[in-house]
Design goal:
It contains 1 helix and 19 strands. A hairpin with a 4-residue loop joins strand 9 and strand 10. By secondary structure, it is mainly beta. It has an 18-stranded antiparallel beta barrel.
Length: 406
């Protein structure tokens, strides 16, 4: 009996020692925890329409290395919710309740869950994955699907398919037929310094005969100390009826570090509008709000916007846009940084909208409390000018964030 007990204890200790080493070798964890504070005045440009709240989220990414050339990737958001929101606001109850509600705060949201295999000349990604093209205005989505990448050295093509929607039924007859994403992307090095892509994608809804497509080119690199990003995209398709989709847009950004402390940059945006009643301007196939110019220079990148979800059509009236932004950053110390940005947006076709222009500015400051823990404060002011709307008020967004990365 004693011998059996000693053997069992030895076996337990061996497993206890082996499992952590095994897990450490195969499992890679990363992620972030953030708490945000919001204070919005004149929301929607309405006088005295003010709101304020806190929210939080834990994001964890796990990479399980199955072999040297295959892994499974998981990214999940945990406990995302508004403080004190309770069931009505999908958040956390007040301190008087011991457990969270069954709303968002107690949910587990898997936005990435896929397997990846790399065979040198080709690689394959299968499952819920991220699809992004260029500056992330044309295509920006998490979607289940398949992506095949090929490695031809100088040129690296990839072909992807995504299941956009089953249209509420697994039956594919008539109005329940599927909507699917199809696309191709060619990556290559332009010259010696510019990572470039030429791409095309389409979302085809076979139930309604609605289809949208886009083709474009994107490049990013440096000439000396000047960093440049450029993109051109063109859109087409129709809604299965009388409306044709259209759109052509351009983007150019230049930025440069003047020295170790100062950096400056500017952006130009241009998109054609349309006054044809049988046409609708589109600026992307799927939009996850990643491209929001008036927040991208701040610690709250993509969390807020001065132009809604569509910087290439802010009026949402097929008016297009002509816009310029100027931004700068000061790295005062290794821990302390600050910056600001000015933006001016106006319609390309002012015959189809009463919107004249929007002027916006932001200012921010961030401090690294430790190597991977940051506290920041950002303010965005947005001032629209619309014919016949004299009662519009400037909207202010005060945004605070505490974030730790791991």
């Amino acid at each position: 009996m004693k011998k059996l007990l000693v053997t069992a204890i030895a076996a337990f200790l061996a497993v206890a020692l082996v499992i952590p080493a095994y897990a450490e070798d195969r499992l890679e964890l990363s992620g972030e925890f953030r708490v945000r504070g919001w204070d919005i005045t004149n929301e929607g440009f309405e006088d005295n329409n003010d709101s304020a709240w806190f929210d939080q989220r834990m994001r964890i990414g796990a990479k399980v290395n199955v072999s040297d050339n295959a892994h499974v990737m998981i990214r999940t958001d945990l406990g995302e919710g508004v403080w004190g929101g309770g069931d009505d606001l999908n958040g956390f109850n007040s301190g008087g309740v011991a457990r969270p509600t069954p709303g968002t705060s107690s949910s587990v949201d898997f936005d990435r869950l896929y397997m990846f295999m790399d065979q040198g000349m080709w690689n394959l990604t299968v499952g819920q994955q991220y699809y992004g093209l260029g500056i992330l205005e044309v295509m920006d989505a998490n979607m289940p699907g398949v992506k095949l990448g090929l490695d031809f050295g100088a040129v690296q093509p990839s072909f992807f398919y995504g299941k956009f929607s089953e249209n509420l039924s697994l039956n594919d007859d008539g109005e329940n037929d599927d909507a699917n994403l199809y696309g191709v992307n060619f990556s290559f090095l332009l010259g010696e310094n510019f990572d470039s892509n030429v791409f095309g994608a389409m979302i085809d809804d076979e139930a309604t005969n609605d289809n949208k497509w886009a083709v474009g080119a994107h490049t990013q690199g440096k000439i000396g100390i000047l960093g440049l990003t450029g993109e051109v995209a063109h859109f087409g398709g129709d809604d299965g009826g009388v409306v044709d989709y259209t759109g052509t847009q351009f983007y150019l950004k230049g930025e440069s570090a003047i020295n170790e402390m100062f950096s400056l940059g500017a952006e130009l945006l241009y998109a054609f509008g349309t006054d044809d009643p049988n046409e609708e301007q589109i600026t992307g196939l799927v939009d996850w709000w990643s491209f929001t110019p008036m927040s991208l220079n701040t610690p709250g990148a993509a969390d807020f916007s001065a132009t809604g979800s569509n910087p290439f059509n802010p009026s949402e009236e097929n008016a297009g846009v002509q816009a310029v932004t100027l931004f700068g950053q000061v790295n005062a110390t290794e821990a302390l940084s600050m910056g600001a940005k000015l933006g001016y947006f106006q319609p390309e076709d002012d015959d189809v909208t009463d919107w004249d222009n929007t002027f916006a500015w932001n200012a921010w400051v961030a401090y690294k409390l430790t190597g991977n823990t940051t506290a920041s404060l950002t303010y965005l002011r947005t001032s629209p000018d619309v014919d016949g709307a004299d009662d519009l008020e400037d909207e202010g967004t005060l945004y605070a964030k505490f974030q730790i990365n791991f």
